[in-house]
Design brief:
The chain has 423 residues and is of the alpha/beta class. It has two domains: 144 residues, 3-Layer(aba) Sandwich (Rossmann fold), CATH 3.40.50; 156 residues, NAD(P)-binding Rossmann-like Domain (Rossmann fold, 3-Layer(aba) Sandwich). The protein contains 15 helices and 13 strands. The strands form two sheets. The protein has a seven-stranded mixed β-sheet with strand order 10-9-8-7-11-12-13. Strands 1, 2, 3, 4, 5 and 6 form a six-stranded mixed β-sheet that branches. α1 crosses α15 and α6 packs across α7. The protein is globular. It binds nicotinamide-adenine-dinucleotide (NAD). Nicotinamide-adenine-dinucleotide binds next to α7.
Length: 423
């Protein structure tokens, strides 16, 4: 019951469109950012897996490194039947821009395996992860490229990546991957970090708007790692979470859903909100969720959800992107015309990569920070990045998305200029 998506949609072309607009505003010459229009390295791998029934199935995986100008490449790994090279390319480029925007010393990368993890047994999933890791192991590493969780991947899968890479190297390499369990040198607060970043972005926005956040109604598409943490933390701030959805269905309750109960339900049953039954809870589809009346809409599922059609119909006042690339560039223009404030992905969902950076730093130092320190440092970075975007948004009279891209592009282009073109 997901939103109808346009088959001609190409996420990488979407990245290039916004990049060109930001370059134009910054008056950059083509030479200043030409290299950023291409991935540095793209690896496609075949992953044979012995299935439980004894048959061999071959999956296709990717690892794309968009830019290493500002540091080792960084980005999650996605397991999904939608994964293709253009999607992974776009996600890698967004990582470069995101890391530059929040000013952490990483470049951008992303990985993906074309598969449906919902139909794989745990053993099949483990074999798939281990073989994928072995196949991309020549181009990953703590100083080269550091994977992390994304759609349909979690701390357990990160453990298998860490173990496989460590077995190949012959010694423990926790810093090769972030988002690990605490026992394997994960970072306190990493699980909720992206959702916390979304919440902090909204807090920072409401401070700028001079409006109280308590009592605001929130609709969230995607009730996974990002969506459910954002829901819980916004509810703690006094917001009313009136609707949430997953790939199966959406649910709505005017007086606000019981988020803690929903998280327990999803943890036990998986992405099956279609079967959730509770008095006063109405079932809706994803299109209804995206177009319903709400103060804040948080797309936190996948790309290409706020299309032109949805943008025309949406009744939200503010959109804060938990997902990567949920809004098309054409939809963006409609939102702007309607006066809907859209806070872009590369700012709003940066909390995850910021805490991944903290995890990597701790792993490299073999040191553990307290959770309070993680939360405090994350809040400082998110506030600084928000303030920078807000200033460019106001000074240049551009959308928050163009403002965020302008800062990220300028930072990355300047770094590239200082380093020069090799050889
Ligand atoms: P997840 O797998 O934990 O959850 C994804 C959720 O989206 C699930 O509820 C799933 O059912 C739902 N969903 C999937 N396809 C859908 C569809 N077509 N329509 C409606 N719902 C759908 O993934 P996640 O880690 O929460 O990631 C969600 C988004 O946030 C992705 O765009 C991801 O790239 C982005 N993101 C994640 C992180 C992170 O740290 N996990 C960091 C930054 C950005």
């Amino acid at each position: 019951m997901s939103v109808e998506t346009d088959k001609s949609y190409n996420p990488y072309q979407e990245v290039l469109k916004i990049l060109d607009l930001a370059a134009e505003k910054l008056k950059l010459s083509k030479n200043d950012y030409e290299a950023l229009r291409y991935s540095e390295r793209e690896l496609r791998v075949s992953i044979p897996v012995e299935m439980d029934d004894g048959s061999i199935k071959v999956f296709t995986g990717y690892r794309v490194q968009h830019s290493s100008s500002r540091g080792p490449c960084k980005g999650g790994v996605r397991f999904s039947p939608e994964v293709d090279l253009d999607e992974v390319r776009a996600l890698a480029a967004w990582m470069t821009l995101k890391c530059a925007l929040v000013n952490i010393p990483f470049g951008g990368a992303k990985g993906g395996v074309h598969c449906n993890p919902a139909v794989l047994s745990e053993r099949e999933l483990r074999s798939l992860t281990r073989r994928y890791t072995a196949m991309i192991s020549p181009i990953i590493g703590p100083e080269i490229d550091i994977p992390a969780p994304d759609v349909n991947t979690d701390a357990k899968i990160m453990s298998w990546i860490m173990d496989t890479y460590s077995m190949i190297k012959g010694y423990n390499n926790p810093a090769v991957v972030t988002g690990k369990p605490l026992l394997l040198e994960g970072c306190l607060g990493r699980g909720e970090a992206t959702g916390r970043g979304v919440m902090l972005t909204i807090v920072n926005l409401y401070k700028k708007l001079g409006q109280p956040l308590a009592g605001q109604t929130v609709a969230i598409q995607g009730f996974g790692k990002v969506g459910n943490a954002a829901a819980r933390l916004l509810q703690e701030k006094g917001c009313k979470i009136t609707a949430v959805s997953d790939a199966s269905s959406g649910i709505y309750q005017e007086q606000g859903l019981d988020v803690d109960q929903l998280i327990k339900y999803v943890n036990a049953k998986g992405n099956l909100l279609k079967d959730y039954q509770e008095e006063g809870v109405k079932h809706i589809n994803n299109q209804e969720l995206l177009t319903m009346k709400a103060d804040i809409l948080i797309p936190a599922a996948i790309e290409n959800q706020i299309t032109e059609d949805i943008a025309r119909k949406t009744q939200a006042r503010i959109i804060v992107e938990g997902a990567n690339g949920p809004t098309t560039s054409a939809a963006d223009m409609i939102l702007e015309e309607k006066g809907i404030l859209a806070i872009p992905d590369i700012l709003a969902n940066a909390g995850g990569v910021v805490v991944s950076y903290f995890e990597w730093v701790q792993n490299k130092e073999s040191f553990k920070w307290q959770e309070a320190e993680v939360k405090e440092k994350l809040a400082v970075i998110m506030e600084e990045a928000f303030a920078e975007v807000w200033k460019v948004y106001q000074d240049y009279q551009v959308s928050p998305r163009i403002a965020a891209y302008m800062i990220a592009l300028q930072r990355t282009a300047e770094t590239k200029k200082l380093r020069g073109v090799f050889p």
